[in-house]
Amino acid sequence: xxxxxxxxxxxxxxxxxxxxxxxxxxxxxxxxxxxxxxxxxxxxxxxxxxxxxxxxxxxxxxxxxxxxxxxxxxxxxxxxxxxxxxxxxxxxxxxxxxxxxxxxxxxxxxxxxxxxxxxxxxxxxxxxxxxxxxxxxxxxxxxxxxxxxxxxxxxxxxxxxxxxxxxxxxxxxxxxxxxxxxxxxxxxxxxxxxxxxxxxxxxxxxxxxxxxxxxxxxxxxxxxxxxxxxxxxxxxxxxxxxxxxxxxxxxxxxxxxxxxxxxxxxxxxxxxxxxxxxxxxxxxxxxxxxxxxxxxxxxxxxxxxxxxxxxxxxxxxxxxxxxxxxxxxxxxxxxxxxxxxxxxxxxxxxxxxxxxxxxxxxxxxxxxxxxxxxxxxxxxxxxxxxxxxxxxxxxxxxxxxxxxxxxxxxxxxxxx
Amino acid sequence: xxxxxxxxxxxxxxxxxxxxxxxxxxxxxxxxxxxxxxxxxxxxxxxxxxxxxxxxxxxxxxxxxxxxxxxxxxxxxxxxxxxxxxxxxxxxxxxxxxxxxxxxxxxxxxxxxxxxxxxxxxxxxxxxxxxxxxxxxxxxxxxxxxxxxxxxxxxxxxxxxxxxxxxxxxxxxxxxxxxxxxxxxxxxxxxxxxxxxxxxxxxxxxxxxxxxxxxxxxxxxxxxxxxxxxxxxxxxxxxxxxxxxxxxxxxxxxxxxxxxxxxxxxxxxxxxxxxxxxxxxxxxxxxxxxxxxxxxxxxxxxxxxxxxxxxxxxxxxxxxxxxxxxxxxxxxxxxxxxxxxxxxxxxxxxxxxxxxxxxxxxxxxxxxxxxxxxxxxxxxxxxxxxxxxxxxxxxxxxxxxxxxxxxxxxxxxxxx
Lengths: 416, 416
Hints:
2 copies of one chain form a homodimer.
Chain A: E1 2-8, H1 10-13, H2 20-31, E2 35-42, H3 46-59, E3 62-66, H4 77-84, E4 89-91, H5 93-105, E5 119-121, E6 125-127, E7 136-141, E8 144-149, H6 153-171, E9 175-184, H7 188-194, H8 196-201, E10 206-212, E11 215-224, H9 227-245, E12 249-251, H10 258-268, E13 273-277, H11 283-288, E14 298-304, H12 307-314, H13 318-324, H14 329-343, E15 347-353, E16 368-375, E17 378-385, H15 390-413
Parallel strand pairs in A: 1-2, 1-3, 3-8, 13-14, 13-15
Antiparallel strand pairs in A: 4-5, 6-7, 7-8, 9-11, 9-12, 10-11, 15-16, 16-17
Helix pairs in contact in A: 2-6, 3-4, 10-15
């Protein structure tokens, strides 16, 4: 089955907004095994939208639209789509009721144009919106299905996950299941090289790599007549991926992030951690604090951007800083050791490097980063050379520090 | 003049990649005063790309393509576009030379398919690539112009800024100039309400609002026969915006970020700052460290996620934490005061709040955040209620803390 996406909104054509809805819907459709050949963006213009819809209706089985469902005159996605599908608009009493309740809760005055959002194409399935006033809509007519979704991601994402995903899955003759094998500590091309045979020969299940900052995600997707069979097709592929990537695999749950995987390890082993950051300046701790409930394992962190702060807060020796410099394995090691001592934590990860664009030398170029990790009396360091902008180098440093912390915990647990 | 954008890449249709190129190119085109009515995404498929190109060529004056210029068999943007424009491919000697130099620098083995990238449509303008091997291309034929750009943003962005932008500007009969008036400390709808008359009546210059996290950017764009006249049209509008928004305006330079504006203020007044963070867990310091050269003004920061750390590192009193709780104006104030003392800094910004999704109560709901700021013996606090996910609440808290810090410095300088 083919699907195509049309995002409506002048803000997208002006570049005011990055189209994250397109990436979200595309990934969901890929998970459902739907083939997407086209995406379009068009402004709030009835004529141009109508022409696109007529073309899309001919070439795709399912047309998903996002945006243009608001209460103003500019918003005309629903009116245009209903016309193309030959449907009249009628008022939906439940939609009206929910719009009223939503606006009252927000303390907004209800104006006549709010009721425009309660109008739905006759005979359509209404997707009630628990996060806003615009209901979504599913229209079916002669083998074409049009799905209209509100533009704001905080409304679109839950509506898609809760209502559209199950609807599209039921349309499919086969059941699609997928798992996300997430890797850290290996680059994209190295990861792809290790599984070229699987990527090339893939039919069912398929394996698709997604490159993220400091991580590679492998989506394994299988089709079968029922969920049990589909999952049983995934098992051997996942086992093979685990065999090939070993400790680089940190989860097979699409919802689990690297920092959550680290937090689970800390919990499993009853450990506390602290951070001692120079060039990342708090971003590493910021990632750990992404995990709701990390407070059991992370209590405090140090940002020591100056040499004086490294001495004062972490007890790095003046001599080390003078002899080897702030960006050195020796400093990274002393930062980790001193941080753990200051915080009374079992572990401490440290990062020191040259994020640029200034400050690089021939010996210590921009992108040179040392990560240190103290763990129960021992201290380990790692040297990395990243490239890119200041912010890219800092993001990679953070991902790498989390990966290194995870490795040290795993090695310690394995008695290595 | 109308422009349309076609992004080529199966990774976009699978949702592996968010299409940030589209937002970048759209904003640049808006700055140039070009009208964009359509954007499309298509996979690496010659037939579908050809059909799109034929339609685009008819309806738009300029067609910009990104992606599909790589060395592999899959990459067929150049071949397809050349065919649609009726051009033969020929080898460009300089492109060949630069590809060789680039690959040698990277230490890569050169294979036969690398020379595919040195092929360019006959009579086209070649855009040499200083960040990769794929040259960009500009083709003109009977009133249509096609511009081909490499997909990776680190190659596309500098190529566009340095080569495509001046080319497109020269095509325009008029000169377009724009300024970006950036605001903090005011919400999107409040900002729009203040300038509804300017937004409605706008013709030349136009004013377009762009909502960012905790900020609103207003782009003022004018067209005229020359740059001087265009800039002179902008002046009274910018003055009017400054008059209406006052201290909320932090820059009119599109390249300057909020943290850079704060850093410039610190420099101007010879001040040092430190951070004391609870729920933001390092992200506030991380924003300050985005500024290369901040080390003169920011030397260290404290992440005090637990109550014990707030007492130990910042000297927040046990009684305050017991009586008012960690999320209270009293704690925010003591964090700011204690942080400045511990770091020996002139200023300290503190953040404490409930980022959720757990931990909210009726009295202190998720999203409640207190920001504190110590400045030369005085301490100020602010209460905010944000909504959204844990990460959104934390991002808004950081933007708000920077805004508050800026306000305190300005007020202090004005003797308020």
